[in-house]
Amino acid sequence: MFKSMLTTAAAKANLMDGMRAASASAIMLLVGCALHAPDFSWAAIGAFWTSLATAPQTARSRLASMLSFAVLSTLGGGLAIYAASLGAAAAALTILFFVTVAGLTRIWGDQPYQVAILAATACVVMVDHPAAGGASGYAYLGLYLLGCLFAAALSTVLWQIHPSAPEYPHDRWHQAAVQSARGALRQLRAHASLSSDGVHFALRLGVATTAAYLTVHVLELPCGYWATMAVLLILQPSAAGTLPRSVERALGTVVGTLIAVAIGELAHTPLTIALAVFPLIGLTMALRPVGYSVFVAFLTPSFVLVADYAMPAIDYNYAMARLENNLLGSAIAIAATLILWPLTERVKK
């Protein structure tokens, strides 16, 4: 049985995508090492998130999704940084707006929603980062945009991954017909989704994420943006989707936290962290199709190491703070699913 699971995981994994995403982030960190500029961790984060926002269908869709994410997250991040300088109330209203709008993009399909929700994730991280506000916040934003654009260039120009099988004219005709049919279905789904349920989901997502932000600020919890990120990435349109996803994220976060602590005991310099990031991000991207808990297990140490590149000191208490915030975000997401408009959600098969 275990061998069968490994075979299935290997079949679903995309190693080339993983290596490309890992290269984009690791190169940014290595540049930071060479320039003695630890703030390049933001460039690595931008490259990492842009890789996650990639649309796999065609080179054109890949470029469109990556550039859309780069523009949306940078502009949104700039507004979030400015809002944070005005106080917690302004920051909370900014989060409510961005996340609610991101939730509404579900009516256009999974890929636009993925780009929008990742852009919203960037906003909630930037609004809660210690360096947010003032000139230093915008300097971080510039490095972040550099990482986004580098990942897009690497994916679409410098290192394109072509399908192994040749494409024949009748295949193109068939694909065009399929895309046309899918487009029509998307339009019908968009029309149907623009109902109370679709709006309720977007509002639920916005309210829950804002509640997480205010909670961590009132309690003065360190690494609070992990709670807001957890709400964004866990909350689904129905309780049937939110509950298992929260369990998967909790399990993945526990494993990922242990990995981060173990690596933190060995990696004490920016260079060793940059070298450790490469296989972790590669596995995060490659194993994303395998399962959400596996994805989170490698995503957690990847993001911890990149985010803490400027201060490489990952001890047990520091990692546990992130785990606790993830669990808090999961609890808020579940509560929001059960409390906010719970009876209006249709069961989606």
TrEMBL record:
Q: Which residues cross the membrane?
A: 67-100, 138-159, 250-278, 290-311, 323-343
* Superkingdom to which the source organism belongs: Bacteria
The family database entries (PROSITE patterns) matched by this protein are listed as: PROKAR_LIPOPROTEIN
Pfam entry (one)? FUSC_2
Q: Which residues does the UniProt record annotate as the domain Integral membrane bound transporter? A: 212-335
The record ties this protein, via InterPro entries, to: Memb_transporter_dom (IPR049453)
The membrane topology term of the UniProt record is:
Multi-pass membrane protein
Annotated localization:
Cell membrane
Protein keywords: Cell membrane, Membrane, Transmembrane, Transmembrane helix
A single GO cellular-component term from the record reads:
plasma membrane
- Family to which the UniProt record says this protein belongs: Belongs to the YccS/YhfK family.
PANTHER family linked: MULTIDRUG RESISTANCE PROTEIN MDTO, P-HYDROXYBENZOIC ACID EFFLUX PUMP SUBUNIT-RELATED
Protein name, entry field: Integral membrane bound transporter domain-containing protein
| Organism, as annotated | Duganella rivi
